[in-house]
User: What shape does this take?
Amino acid sequence: MSSQTTLFAHRLTLIPLESEHAADAARLHMIGQPGSFLTGLGADVLKVVYQQLPRSPVGFGFAAVDPAQPHELLGFVSATTSVGALFFEMGTRRLPAFAPPLLRRFCQSPSLALRAVQTVAYPLLHPTTSDGVTPAELLSIMVRPEVRGGGLGALLVRALEAECQRRYITAIDVTVAAANDGAQRFYVRHGFAYKQSFTLYGQPMHLYRADIAAR
Assistant: This one.
């Protein structure tokens, strides 16, 4: 264990991701995933995403905070027990919260509307239950740039795995851009294995899965 990881262990606390973390989560998301579709939607839309996700019965996650400053995130991980159910909920019951910032962004950049349709269709692009496994989906994991490399990402992954085991979920999926070698190395290092590839937004994507049933 590095000295930085030891320092983390003494000064941070992992707590459930809550709506009050939304603004900071949106900021970290934009820093951590430049050029991605969600980042392209802008901070206002991302803030709504992270406000609504913890309120959903199929959304959950963890925030890493310094107990002295509990509203400032050092990092976070978000996930869902069902991508399809989450997208349906966000597009129906929670649509009033999304509509104003989404419409502003679609007017500014109409091409984002097509990508939004592709995102909603995403759960149909790969059969996650074809082998009898119903996995959770890791949606995002972000760490402040100044504290990267100290083991915080690993702590967030372990917290997510423990929560999935508590919920009797036996696997976790994550989708990674094929060009993102760094993210793929991170997930492989933490027990994820390549499962399949597909195309999203005209770009090749890889699906990785962690089997946590035997851990």
Q: What stands out?
A: The chain is about 45% helix and 25% strand. Confidence is low (pLDDT under 50) at residues 1-7.
